[in-house]
């Protein structure tokens, strides 16, 4: 058939399947999620009208400054992400294209994913409380800590929860605030022994932090390179590996000659 067509007509006929394939590829769902900077919340204050940290069984102090946990927002586990979405996200600094399995466990339903994220948040809160009370040498049988953060799941607020509990109970240990009156943001998991772990999405979280007024960002040291990739101007990165290193770094920020680690 092609031999009987003129060259332009033959080219047109050949192009039709290619165009159809490209159109299908553009609109077909792909196994990716598109993420962007999400909300932040000051763990020393309220979120949606409810105190994030409530402590009973020990005196608490009035704090100044802010400790803002950070999040990313991703397309839902049942959302359809097309090639056009992927290309758009690839070239934007305020978007990230991630394998869907890196954001949501493969094969899980939306309900199962929500339950998983809720359980991770609960475990993170328990670990944060234990790490904070252990650092302050306080017994969990006497001091009761309640953590509430609506519409947020996963373990990445662990470090900020821990610092918030310590600031409310003890400040910097000498009558001042851990924040020094600053707006400090950050991310990182924490275990009961105070070890800080990586979380992912830090390049987007730094943008959320800067947007909401932070000047310092606490980042797991293992994610320094990712955090520096799209670092907003005026936001200082402070790498941490443990709860103690985070508190020491915050204390050093207050000293004129203090040595503050950097990425």
Automatic annotation (TrEMBL):
Pfam family, one: Lon_C
Ranges that cross the membrane: none
Residue runs in coiled coils: none
The keyword Signal belongs to this UniProt entry's keyword annotation: yes
N-terminal signal peptide: 1-35
InterPro entries: Lon_proteolytic, Lon_Prtase, Ribosomal_Su5_D2-typ_SF, Ribsml_uS5_D2-typ_fold_subgr
SUPFAM superfamilies assigned to the protein according to its UniProt record, in alphabetical order: Ribosomal protein S5 domain 2-like
Entry keywords, A to Z: Signal
Stretches assigned to the Lon proteolytic domain: 154-239
Name assigned to this protein: Lon proteolytic domain-containing protein
The organism of origin for this protein: Streptomyces cynarae
Lineage start: Bacteria, Bacillati, Actinomycetota, Actinomycetes, Kitasatosporales
């Amino acid at each position: 058939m092609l031999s009987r067509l003129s060259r332009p007509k033959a080219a047109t006929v050949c192009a039709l399947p290619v165009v159809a394939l490209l159109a299908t590829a553009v609109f077909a769902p792909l196994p990716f999620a598109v993420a962007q900077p999400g909300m932040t919340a000051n763990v020393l204050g309220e979120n949606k009208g409810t105190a994030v940290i409530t402590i009973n069984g020990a005196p608490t102090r009035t704090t100044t400054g802010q400790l803002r946990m950070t999040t990313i927002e991703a397309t839902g586990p049942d959302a359809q992400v097309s090639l056009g979405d992927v290309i758009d996200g690839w070239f934007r600094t305020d978007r990230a294209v991630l394998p869907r399995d890196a954001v949501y466990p493969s094969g899980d339903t939306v309900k199962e994913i929500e339950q998983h994220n809720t359980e991770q948040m609960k475990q993170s809160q328990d670990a944060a409380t234990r790490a904070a009370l252990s650092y302050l040498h306080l017994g969990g049988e006497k001091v009761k800590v309640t953590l509430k953060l609506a519409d947020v799941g996963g373990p990445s607020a662990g470090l900020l929860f821990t610092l918030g509990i310590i600031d409310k109970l003890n400040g910097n240990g000498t009558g001042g605030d851990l924040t020094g009156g600053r707006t400090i943001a950050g991310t990182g998991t924490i275990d009961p022994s105070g070890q800080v772990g990586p979380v992912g999405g830090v390049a987007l979280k730094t943008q959320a932090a800067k947007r909401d007024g932070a000047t310092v960002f606490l980042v797991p040291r293992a994610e320094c390179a990712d955090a520096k990739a799209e670092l907003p101007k005026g936001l200082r990165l402070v790498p941490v590996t443990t709860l103690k290193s985070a508190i020491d770094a915050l204390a050093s920020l207050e000293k004129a000659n203090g040595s503050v680690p950097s990425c």
